[in-house]
Specification:
The structure is a homodimer of 247-residue chains. Chain A is an alpha+beta fold and 247 residues long. In chain A, strand 8 and strand 9 form a beta hairpin. In chain A, strands 1, 2, 3, 4, 5, 6, 7, 8, 9 and 10 form a ten-stranded mixed β-sheet that branches.
Chain lengths: 247, 247
Amino acid sequence: MFRYKMIISYDGTGYGGWQSQPNSICIQDIIESVLTKILRQKINIVGSGRTDAGVHALGQVAHFDSTIALDLSKCLYSANSLLSNEIRIFSIEETSEKFHARYSATGKTYQYRLHLDRIGDPFKAKYALHVKHKIDIEKLYTGSRHFIGTHDFSAFANQQHKGSAAIDGVRTIKRLDIIEEIGGIRLEYEGDGFLYKMVRNITGTLLDVASGKISVASIPEILQSKDRKQAGRTAEAHGLCLVEVYY
Amino acid sequence: MFRYKMIISYDGTGYGGWQSQPNSICIQDIIESVLTKILRQKINIVGSGRTDAGVHALGQVAHFDSTIALDLSKCLYSANSLLSNEIRIFSIEETSEKFHARYSATGKTYQYRLHLDRIGDPFKAKYALHVKHKIDIEKLYTGSRHFIGTHDFSAFANQQHKGSAAIDGVRTIKRLDIIEEIGGIRLEYEGDGFLYKMVRNITGTLLDVASGKISVASIPEILQSKDRKQAGRTAEAHGLCLVEVYY
């Protein structure tokens, strides 16, 4: 048995996210069916984690097992020929059987893009949250400092399923940079792992801070409350992109 | 009666082009229905020209007439609030009744984007033609020089309708620049006017030149033939963008 590691990029617009959900086309399913077709054996792929419907990826990582010793460059070419242009496999390489795309991951970087403009831009619309009203970037920056480090982020996690068992909410955000770019800013989150919807919930809360709905000073209390209801809104999916997974 | 001029940008992905075609949603219709709703009177808009299904615009221009003296900034805000993020009106201003978006136009700039990469990029897929194979940019450049100036471009025009009367095919291309950008090149065409599918047919022919299917030396003969069948293929719609209209 051989194990293969892939780096995958996708425009999440119009897809039902990474993993199978009813009534939607999922990226994992599409890639599995293409690999199954090429290798003529049922292939199951395991991603580093799920991305929600509409979320993008520059560097999603997945692995799969096969009894076939692949011609890697030919397989890469064939798979990309069968995939739509919105999903690209950047690399396929053989890896150790100890490697697991999800459990071996030691960290991830996400980015969340904001397009700050009164009118908007059709070519940014699918890849950045359009923020029409004036926001206070200074407050957004000051607020963001509270999230860096090791905290229980339960107040910023949604339950994945109704009635899921409570999970340990302690995570470490190593880096949360606010980076100016043409037309707006992007928030770059690097951490050892992220709870369900955590990046979108922190971003939504920072937007509420930047528009004055939530005070900067209340962020430590919100963290301590471990109560999702105390935090701000969930920022829309289309501004979010999984940039890189670390091993 | 007041006449208003608008500058409009759109991501043409998924739309049936600027003007009404059966079984598709057209950008002109969408903007007309939004303005009709806001002004509570039937509004007809006239664009500088049609863009085909899938073609984008950074600076499409259109005019409309109304008996209402508009609060321009309020109208701009209301229209953009009702439009999807993929269509944006950048400006609305009052203009002379002599102004006509189509007949007053003295020139246009289009750009055609090529993404030159073996694998591709999901985030460029809707806005640039993905060219997988190696092409000879030097030949593409040399070939492009033949199109600059005043020529009869009939060999590079499609008939808009089967059996349309032949129209005068003489046009002037003032500028055809080949500009390197991240991941590829873009062709910028500035001219006094363009025949139906002319930019896509010239670009397709230049791609055939760059891949060796058509020789650079044959371009003057193709122009002289005035025969569409002599020229190369029509490059796909999604690489094309109407950048600016001049008056």
